[in-house]
Amino acid sequence: GRQTAAPPTHQAAPARHGEPAPAASDGSAGMLGFSAASAVEVLTASGSQPTAQWSVRGKVNRSYDAALRSFVLVVDGGPTTRLSLPKDERKSLALPHRVLVLQLQLPRDKPFGFELALADAGGTRRRLAFSTALREVASSPLHTRVPLADVPRGTWLNLCLDLGELVETFFGSWPYQRLDAISLGAVCKVRRIFALRALS
To answer: pTM (2 decimals)?
Structure first.
């Protein structure tokens, strides 16, 4: 497919210890009620069953991070390890929020990748795959792979993605409409994932 230099598609800001994510205004952590909230919690490592709504494949464990003073999920194992939402691939999150924030820690010497399924206003479903193993953008009309070469490792960070900008940059047709699915691969630690209507 088409290959171009990687544009500035994300922001990686250090996550301060104990820094809370915005809470969903309707208290919803599931697929229902997503569109009504200004901020939505998609994943949190707290609670008794943090991955109950997620499809878990491979080695995904929960551990306590003393520095953060909170629980985190450790996504480890081989290339087939996957943490995906929604659990049923035939369903959609239908999440219209434009900004997605992942609170992550990436290891210094192991690869990490994740994938988003999005739909534009014309109803076309497209995929964005991000990976630390990539060196350049590889783009086709329905699928784009984006390198994460400049993301800090060995420290907690907030990886902020402007989904509207990503759709416009890589697909350049209809504007962004919704996030349908998210899939995290190894290797990473994740504390929370949340979505915002806009960056304040």
So the answer is: 0.84
